[in-house]
Amino acid sequence: MEKIQSDCPYPGCFFCVMKEANPSKRRASVLKFFRELPSQDDDGQVLPISGLWNTAMAHPNDPEFINLGIFECMSALIWKGLKNRRWLSHDQNIYIPYYAAHIIGSYTMNMEEFAERAVRAGVIPPLVELLRGRLTWVEQRVAVRALGHLATYPSTFPAVADHGEVLELAIQLASSSLEIVYSHFYQFVDRRIGYHCDLLTRGMGGVEMESRKAEEWASQLQCWSLQLINCFAFKSEFLHDICKADFLVKLPGMWGGLVNENSPAGVGLLRTICQSKLGRGHVANIPSVVEALCNIARSSDDWQYMAVDCLLWLVQDSNTCHKVIDRVASTLIDLANISMLGDYKKLGDTIVTVLQECMQQYANSRNSISTHIKEQIDELLSSKQSLKLEKNMPKEDLHIKQAAALVVKLEGNSLFSSGNIAGAAAKYSEALALCPMKSKKERVVLYSNRAQCYLLLQQPLAAISDATRALCLHSPLNRHAKSLWRRAQAYDMLGLAKESLLDAILFINECSQSNDPDLSLKQNKVPDYAERLVKKQMRTAWLFREAALKHGGIHCEGEASDAFGQEADDSEWETASESDAENDATGEADDETEWKNDNQV
């Protein structure tokens, strides 16, 4: 290619081409550049490719380079890197397949028309080769991203699906990606490949930055693999391959972590699977998956609504309801006071309707619901009926019920203070029975107080149920600080680290915004008891934990801190009520009275 500017040391310099003022000449020069670049062996080729990478990310909807043959060029460069290892190892060419696949993914993430052009340009075969692991996990990450975008569109999905191994490779990658990144990069600092480090940090950080970015990229590799699988899950002919028990059982544990919280990850795929009758059948047959969906549905996770969708669809399906109802009903009942969540405008009403229909269905069925679940559903239906009756109840009668509930609650507080925890829990139950359904703020306090009692009585499941009910009644949803903290402790007792971590972090966030002197952070300092719990759960829920245990990065349960990169806290974590009563008001029964505004709630 001819020089555009005489002072440029590189013949055919792409950056000089782009400075051409005449649009027609510039397009002609760019077209020639894209056609000739794959056949050239000059030094410095990575520079224009990295420039194109920046342009693709900044302007993914700009058609100029699409029309001039960028997809054909990138496809040819990937093939060159795969077939010509001498060229790949020369100069900085090792970066080029990564940039080329990334460019394809960026230009196809928004525009179906661009995706169609990419397929016609032949990008899928070289991307599949990268997905196989022909180079390294770094190239796999951008390949699965690009293929996921191509599989999103109806017009280009068949071209991806025609490569039968893509789904199998994506499933394998989703299952093994964290282990691959840990063992091939994270574990041994002195063995890290140089260009991986450069791509991770852009030359702006040291070992610590590399490790943090590796965790983020590992999460993306897994989540983008799940996104690709999700495209196949909408097609019934692929569900048998996806819905294998050894894969489904892993999905609830696949989450974006704190480094990739914008991805629905495993629960997102489960939601797609549960939209089909075939998929629901497979999910209902794995109790641990159903139980995990219940935990996510109760949690303060951003993807809570997806788990709720799964549970409702499982209960509404006559072929799966009898398999899951005894596990699922309690969770749905705890959530029955939520109004808006996800696409639901009146989630509570939907839950009541679904459970009511379930009761009617089993009235004349050979399959039966357990007596305990029937009683819970009956109690829910009765509470909703009470709420309707209260609308026509004289205000004087409501005030009498409110006053009676307040008296009983204060008796419960007194019993709690004297150490009679079981007696206090019974009083809070009695107060809940008296308290008007529309007095939401007081019911939040009563449920939260009873949750604290159940914690001290070593009944974590009951504590989670009550704390969840308090959080669902609270406005805004899932933001009652004391209930978050109590549920975080209960989850910790059950070994549910991720759920405990999310609640503990939200608790700290709420404290930072609270006007309550018992909760507000003193001198902007996180309470020691909350900091200890967060550190503990971050170690336990660490993305690489299983891989580190398998590969010797953690030799036993007490040594997670070595791999995680934090100092171990040797002191056993205690509940706030035991060790921090002086500093943590959540270890005491709440004495909040907000009757004045209840008629307006």
In words, what does this structure look like?
The protein is mainly alpha-helical and 601 residues long. Among the domains are: 264-362 and 369-378; 393-546, Serine Threonine Protein Phosphatase 5, Tetratricopeptide repeat, CATH 1.25.40.10. Helix content is 65%, strand content 0%. It is built from 33 helices and no strands. It is elongated.
What is the mean predicted local confidence, pLDDT?
Answer: 89
SS-based class? mainly alpha
How many β-strand runs? 0
Looking at the structure, the CATH topology of the domain at 393-546 is Serine Threonine Protein Phosphatase 5, Tetratricopeptide repeat
Described by strand count, sense and barrel closure, the largest sheet is: none
How many helical stretches?
A: 33
The top-level CATH class of the domain at 393-546 is: Mainly Alpha
Q: Say which CATH homologous superfamily of the domain at 393-546 is assigned.
A: Tetratricopeptide repeat domain
Binned, the helix content reads: 55-70%
Proportion of beta-strand residues: under 5%
| Poorly predicted segments | 1-6, 555-586, 593-601
CATH architecture of the domain at 393-546: Alpha Horseshoe
Radius of gyration: 29 Å
Instruction: Please state the overall shape, judged from the principal axes of the Cα atoms.
Output: elongated
* Amino- and carboxy-terminal Cα gap: 74 Å
Domain ARM repeat N-terminal plant: 6-244
Biased composition (Acidic residues): 567-593
Protein name: ARM repeat N-terminal plant domain-containing protein
InterPro entries: ARM-like (IPR011989), ARM-type_fold (IPR016024), ARM_7 (IPR058868), TPR-like_helical_dom_sf (IPR011990)
